[in-house]
Design brief:
The longest helix has 37 residues. Helix 5 packs antiparallel against helix 7. The chain has a domain of 277 residues. It has nine helices and 21 strands.
Length: 412
C-alpha cells in the first residue's frame, strides 16, 4: 500500500533562487570580490598564527615547568650558577683589577667589585671589643671588615647566593668544567639526585663553599668523599701549596692527578674565594660581626665550619682548591695589601692552579688554541682549550675511614 504523504510534502518544493544571492551578486564588482577573498585569507592566516603561538607558548611553559630551575648547566652562565660574583679589592690596585678583568673576559665571568678596607678605615669603636690590637696584624682587622661589608651587602640586597673572591684570586681556564664536577660532588654528598629541585645548582643543603683556600680538611669520622681520578687540572703533589688540616691523610689526598670534594667539617684557612647563601651571610654577620672575637676572619669561619662558633655551617670544599692566590712578577711588597713584605723579586706564579688563566693571558689575547701548565714537568704541559666545549662529570662517591689513613706531620 502506497504511503500517503501530507499535502505539503506531496508537492515539489520550489526554491526561490532570488532569495539566496550569490557572491557575484553581492559583490557586483570583480574587484570587490577579490578584496573580500584577500580579507578572508588574511583573517585565516592571523587566526592560525594566534593558534600556533598559543600552542608554542603553552608548550614552552610546560617544558619550563618540567625542567628543574637549578640545572647543573647554570654553572656555565656568567655568574657560575650563583646570583652574583663579587671581588674585594682596593681601587688603587689597578694592576690586580686589570688582571682579573682580563681573566674574567676570557672565561666569561661577570664580576662586580666591592671595596677593600684598610686598618685605618676601621673605627676602634666598630672593632670587636675584645680585638687585641697588639697581637693581631693590622691587615687582619681591615680584612675582617671588608668581608663583613661584603656579607652585609648580600643581606641588604637580599642576594640569594653569591661567590666572593679576593682581588688576587686566579682560576683554571676550565673553571666552569671544574665547578660542574664540584657541584655534582656536593649534590652527591648531600644525597640529592643530580637534577632534584633546589635553589642552587650546588644543591639545597649547603651553607658555605670554600672554593679557594690555603688549607682545608675533614673530621676523623668515616665519611663519604667525592673522588675525581685522572684530573689533569689537579696540581702534582710536589707543587701543591694548600695544606690538609687533619693529621690523617687519605691516599686520595696525596695522589697525583686526583681531586676530592669533601664535607669541610675540619675547617680551613685563607679566603681566596668562597660562596654563601643569603641565610649564611646572616649567620656569619651574627656570629663574626656582632659577637666579640679576637681572630682573623678566616679562622672564625673555620670555627663555624667545625661547629665551634656561633651558628654551625654546612661547609664543602675541593682539595686541592679551585681558586688560589696569584702573584705577579715583581718585588714581594706588591703581593699583599695587608701584610708588609720585602723587596725580593720573584717570577709570576699562582698557587695550586695548573692552567692558570692569568698566567695564560699572553696566549689567550693572541687567540692561541692552547694553554700551558705553569710547571714544565707536568704530565700535560700544553693542552687545547675551547671555552665553548662542556665537560661531563666523572667522579664517584667513596666512603673513607679517615682515622685509619696515613698519619704524617708533613704537608701532602
Amino acid at each position: 500500500m502506497a504511503e500517503i504523504l501530507p499535502k505539503w510534502q506531496d508537492k515539489p518544493q520550489v526554491v526561490n533562487k532570488a532569495s539566496t544571492p550569490t557572491l557575484r551578486q553581492v559583490f557586483k564588482s570583480p574587484w570587490k570580490l577579490m578584496v573580500f577573498g584577500l580579507g578572508c585569507l588574511v583573517s585565516l592566516h592571523l587566526f592560525s598564527r594566534m593558534l600556533s603561538g598559543s600552542i608554542i607558548r603553552r608548550s614552552t611553559e610546560m617544558s619550563a615547568q618540567s625542567m628543574p630551575s637549578d640545572s647543573l648547566h647554570d654553572i656555565y652562565n656568567s655568574t657560575l650558577g650563583f646570583q652574583k660574583v663579587f671581588a674585594i679589592g682596593f681601587a688603587e690596585r689597578t694592576d690586580k683589577r686589570d688582571a682579573k678583568t682580563l681573566a674574567s673576559s676570557f672565561t666569561d665571568i661577570d664580576i662586580e667589585w666591592l671595596p677593600a678596607v684598610s686598618f685605618e678605615q676601621v673605627s676602634p669603636k666598630a672593632a670587636p671589643p675584645t680585638w687585641d690590637f697588639n697581637r693581631q696584624a693590622k691587615g687582619a682587622l681591615g680584612c675582617w671588615r671588608a668581608h663583613m661589608n661584603a656579607l652585609e651587602h648580600i643581606v641588604r640586597h637580599r642576594i640569594q647566593t653569591a661567590l666572593i673572591m679576593e682581588d688576587d684570586a686566579d682560576w683554571d681556564v676550565s673553571l666552569k668544567d671544574q665547578l660542574l664536577e664540584f657541584a655534582t660532588g656536593t649534590r652527591a654528598l648531600q644525597h640529592l639526585p643530580p637534577n632534584s629541585p633546589s635553589s642552587s645548582a650546588y644543591g639545597s643543603e649547603w651553607d658555605f663553599l670554600w672554593l679557594g683556600h690555603c688549607r682545608v680538611g675533614s673530621t676523623d669520622d668515616d665519611q663519604e668523599f667525592w673522588v675525581i681520578d685522572d684530573d689533569s687540572t689537579s696540581p702534582p703533589v710536589k707543587h701543591r701549596w694548600a695544606g690538609w688540616t687533619n693529621r690523617h691523610f687519605p691516599d686520595e689526598v696525596r695522589r697525583d692527578g686526583t681531586r676530592v670534594i669533601l664535607n669541610a667539617a675540619g675547617g680551613g684557612m685563607c679566603l681566596y674565594s668562597y660562596a654563601v647563601t643569603y641565610e649564611t651571610a646572616r649567620k656569619i654577620l651574627a656570629s663574626v660581626s656582632l659577637t666579640s672575637i679576637d681572630s682573623p676572619v678566616d679562622a672564625s669561619l673555620s670555627e663555624m665550619c667545625r661547629g665551634k662558633l656561633g651558628n654551625p655551617l654546612r661547609c664543602y670544599a675541593p682539595y686541592p682548591p679551585l681558586l688560589a692566590s696569584h702573584r705577579a712578577a715583581g718585588p714581594q711588597f706588591r703581593d699583599s695589601d695587608l701584610n708588609e713584605k720585602g723587596d725580593k723579586w720573584h717570577k709570576a706564579y699562582t698557587w695550586d692552579i695548573v692552567y692558570s688563566t692569568v698566567l695564560n693571558i699572553p696566549r689567550l689575547v693572541k687567540g692561541m688554541a692552547t694553554v700551558n701548565a705553569q710547571w714544565p714537568d707536568h704530565s700535560r704541559p700544553e693542552i687545547l682549550w675551547n671555552s665553548s666545549l662542556r665537560a661531563s662529570s666523572k667522579g664517584y662517591l667513596k666512603t673513607i675511614a679517615v682515622s685509619n689513613s696515613t698519619t704524617s706531620p708533613n704537608e701532602p
